[in-house]
Amino acid sequence: MTTNMLIAGFGGQGILFSGKFLAYEGLLEEKSVSWLPSYGPEMRGGTANCSVIISDTPVGSPIVSTPDILIAMNMPSLDKYENETVAGGKVFVDSALIDRKLQRTDVEAYYIPATKLANDEGLTGLANMIMLGYVIAKTGIIPFENVDRALLKVVPASKQHLIESNKKALELGYNYAE
Amino acid sequence: MSEKVLMKGNEALAEAAIMAGCRHYLGYPITPQTEIAAYMAKRMPKVGGTFLQAESEIAAINMVIGVSAAGKRAMTSSSSPGISLKGEGLSYLAGCDLPAFVVNVQRGGPGLGGIQPSQSDYFQATKGTSHGDYHMLVLAPDSVQEMVSMTFKGFDLADKYRMTVMLLADGTMGQMMEPVSLDMGEVKEYDKPWAVTGTKCEREHNVVNSLFLKPEQLEVKNFERFEKYNYIEENEVMYEEYLMDDADICIVAFGIAARVSKTAIDMARAKGIKVGMIRPITLWPFPKKALRAAADKVKSFISVEMSMGQMIEDVRLATECTKPVLLCNRVGGMIMTPDEVLAKIEEAQKTGGNN
Amino acid sequence: MAVVFEKPKALTDAVLHYCPGCTHGIVHRLVAEVIDELGIQGKTVGIASVGCSVMSYDYFDVDMVQAAHGRAPAVATGVKRANPENIVFTYQGDGDLAAIGTAETVHSAARGENITIIFVNNAIYGMTGGQMAPTTLPGQVTQTSPYGRDTQTVGFPLKVCELLSNVDGATYLERVAVNNVKNVKAAKKAIKKAFTYQTEGKGFSLIEVVSTCPTNWGMTPQNALKWLEENMIPYYPLGVYKDKYAEEA
After folding, report:
1. Distance of alpha carbon B221 from alpha carbon C232, whole angstroms
2. What is the pTM of this model?
3. Region B322-337 average pLDDT
4. SS3 content of chain B, % helix, strand, coil (to 5)
5. Are A24 and B6 a contacting pair at CB < 8 A?
6. What pLDDT, on the 0 to 100 scale, is given for residue B74?
7. C47 with C67: CB under 8 angstroms?
8. Residue B325's domain spans which residues?
9. Which residue on chain A is closest to B115 by alpha carbon?
10. What ipTM was predicted for this assembly?
11. Which tens digits make up the pLDDT trace of B284-310?
12. Is residue B128's pLDDT more than 90?
């Protein structure tokens, strides 16, 4: 089984970080993983996206152009990638920032006001992790009980005090699903 | 086996260089390889090494010449336009028979081009980086793990043959993260009696030099160097075969194009098309014999590359034009999709490569 | 028998290829004498450049690297950074140092590399047969300024010591000449100070030696010296342009 994910949004939303977190947890689950960011000037405030692949077999192309799971954290990302998502795929939308529904009917749509939840709960800047908690709940892409160890790996040593708030954001998203 | 960690290609290769005993990195910033310089700037002082940001690519490669002439392992890295600037130094490295490790994380060209991944420096790396008769050993990794292992091996080959080893990557390889083991084993040390370390008034003075004004002498120098190159062509070719046993169609691809091709091959196999791949890991020396042997078995070849068709010339030469060779390419920073490669495979299947 | 004169140890037995009246030979000898006197022959590494002195690697009996045109300071940087215990000098002409290698010169000074540069300025490209150099004087006739250097179209000469005196990283800059005994003595003193500074870890030194090129100037050696005194030295005044440690000395 191979899952191709595309996470897209603005630079500064933690797009690349959340992708890295997923890839690391995949690695700790002993899966084959790859993480590939868009790079260049667009990282500085423009759009940012990253491809994450988690697979039971060696990863071929690390580029995700037709995602099984699309996470859209802003309107331009949804506009750009909605039609690229594979039929039967799952599309996650931050409904706090995207005020439209999906046009396609052959994919599963999930809406969560991640940015609003983050602001309401004092977790500003962690909409990405709230979204991920929700994605984990809806897809089972990685087991939720193991998120701690991946956080330990991806949060830099100098910022370990942020682990708690990241964990809280993940839980918030995970529980939103219920 | 040590624990696997998730690392960017650029950073992983930088760490591998340090593990290979490189303590001198001389470079200049350029996208998409600046992570190498940033990583070295952080790490080198901690391992007693030197990180130096030079005033230009030209100065950087000449600093590499200085460090290497002094008998130490040295590296520089850049991306396509910067490698052009290093061209002069690469020729001098060859003419002086100095070891060096040079990384090119390719981007689209010509000119300032773009910053997205490309493979259009294939000719530059394998044929003509600069003036004079010479080769570099060119390594083309297709994963972060190979970025590491080829860097480690690259430093060894450079010392072993006293020549430049170029790691030819692309923006994707540099930027992507994959699980990687940094378990590399022992570094082999080489005697360097030719190095300029001071005579200590105990030996004749060493001269590191590429100037030979007498044509007879310069000819001999070239002959000797090419004996070494011939030996390397016999002994250092590296390639990977993927599903070639029963293949009717042989894809030839390296680096990121090989990764995309692998996915396309799996898709084609699911449709019952017998397609495989020969992936050159050394671009020079090119796996000529493997391709020539494949030409006796397959019906056609497809060269999958992110250039207007550079490696395809070597594929045709190696196979002596015995079988048709199709080109599947994207350029300018675009990467072919598995679907595009699959379409080319299906075309080859339908036409036998004759279009 | 008492020896009153002998070749410095730091020179090989090779016969110099320089033209009659060329001052490279004197400068070579001064550098070699300094290396002998400081007892650093066994740990000195020289960098030859491109130009008339390209084959200085055959003349200096120390480890040598032949560098690409203009790149000697970058190569020296590499050698010095690899083995800081070595004493590293470059030997460069005006075309090499002040035209094609300007960036390497300025930035090795800016970094304060602990190296010594011997810069021979004879206001012309000698090796290629007498073309205009970055240091060719206004009005001076060369192969590529056949009507005299016209400052309106090709600009003015670069004064390297003056230029580098504004670079914070530079430690010691002096311009000397070897046209008479007094100046030869002063030149040797400057070269010795530059090498001594390096042994003391004091940083970047450059000694500019105003020199002659009788062949390409189209003069006898004697007239060349006279021309140097009347034209070169007034344009390129001799003296110390910077010495961070002047008080100590």
Report:
1. 42
2. 0.95
3. 96
4. 40, 20, 40
5. yes
6. 98
7. yes
8. 240-351
9. A40
10. 0.95
11. 999 999 999 999 999 999 999 999 999
12. no
Confidence of residue A40 (pLDDT cuts 50, 70, 90): low
Structural domains in chain C, sorted by start: 24-243 (3.40.50.970)
Side chain identity at C108, as an amino acid letter? S
All structural domains of chain A, each given as residue ranges with its CATH number in brackets, are: 2-176 (3.40.920.10)
- Measure the CA–CA gap between B3 and C191, rounded to whole angstroms: 56
Token reading at A6: 């595309």
Residue B162 resides in a domain:
yes
The answer to whether B78 and B142 are in contact (CB under 8 A) is no
Out of B52, B67, B205, name the one closest to residue C63 (CB). B205
Q: How far is B281 from chain A (nearest CA, A)?
A: 16
- What is the spatial distance between Cα C124 and Cα C206, in angstroms, rounded to a whole number? 19
**pLDDT tens-digit series, residues B90-119:** 999 999 999 999 999 999 999 999 999 999
Answer yes or no: do B39 and B135 share one domain.
yes
DSSP H helical ranges for chain B: 9-19, 34-43, 57-69, 80-95, 122-126, 144-161, 171-175, 215-235, 255-270, 288-295, 311-318, 338-351
Geometric angle at alpha carbon C86, from C83 and C87, rounded to 5°: 140
Structurally, chain B folds into a number of domains equal to 2
Q: Which of A128, A127, A89 is nearest to A110 (CA)?
A: A89
Interface partners of chain A (CB pairs < 8 Å, 3 or more) are B
- Structure confidence by residue, pLDDT tens digits, C167-176: 999 999 999 9
Q: Which of B1, B3, B6 is the best mutation test for A, with the most CBs of A within 10 A? A: B6
Residues B182, B299 within the same domain? no
Q: Is A79 in contact with A59 (CB distance < 8 Å)?
A: no
Look up tokens 């390397």; give the residue.
B232
Helices (H) and strands (E) in chain A, counts: 6, 6
What is the enclosing helix (H) or strand (E) of C185? Answer: helix C181-199
Provide the shortest C-alpha distance from residue A24 to chain B (in Å). Answer: 7
Give the residue carrying structure tokens 């956080």: A151
Long-range contacts: C13-17, Cβ < 8 Å, 24+?
C14/C58, C14/C59, C16/C59, C17/C55
Q: Does C79 touch chain B (CB under 8 A)?
A: yes
Task: Tell me whether A11 touches chain B (CB under 8 Å).
Answer: no
Q: Is A35 close to B177, i.e. CB distance below 8 A?
A: yes
- The arithmetic mean of pLDDT across residues B226-236, rounded, is 98
- Helix axes of A147-154 and A163-176: crossing angle, nearest 10 degrees: 140
| Chain C residue at shortest CA distance from B70 | C79
Helix (H) or strand (E) holding A72: strand A69-72
Chain C interface, mutation test: which of B209, B213, B214, B217, most C Cβ atoms within 10 Å?
Answer: B209
| In a shared domain, residues B40 and B158 | yes
Task: Give a yes or no: residue B206 inside a domain.
Answer: no
| Identity of the residue in B32, B178, B260 whose CB atom sits nearest the CB atom of A34 | B178
Mind telling me how many Å the CA of A95 is from chain B's nearest CA?
29
**Are residues B275 and B223 located together in one domain of the fold?**
no
What's the rounded Cα separation, in Å, for the pair C190 and C184? 10
pLDDT of B1-28, one tens digit each? 468 999 999 999 999 999 999 999 999 9
Q: How many CB atoms lie within 10 A of CB A95?
A: 16
Check contact C-B (3+ Cβ pairs < 8 Å): yes
Hey, which chains touch C, using 3+ CB pairs under 8 Å? B
Q: Do B178 and A61 touch (CB under 8 A)?
A: no
Question: What span, in angstroms and rounded, lies between the C-alpha atoms of C126 and B277?
Answer: 57
> B184 and B255, same structural domain?
no
For the stretch C67-121, pLDDT in tens is 999 999 999 999 999 999 999 999 999 999 999 999 999 999 999 999 999 999 9
Asked if residue A46 has pLDDT above 80, the reply is no
Quick check: do B and A touch, 3+ CB pairs under 8 A?
yes
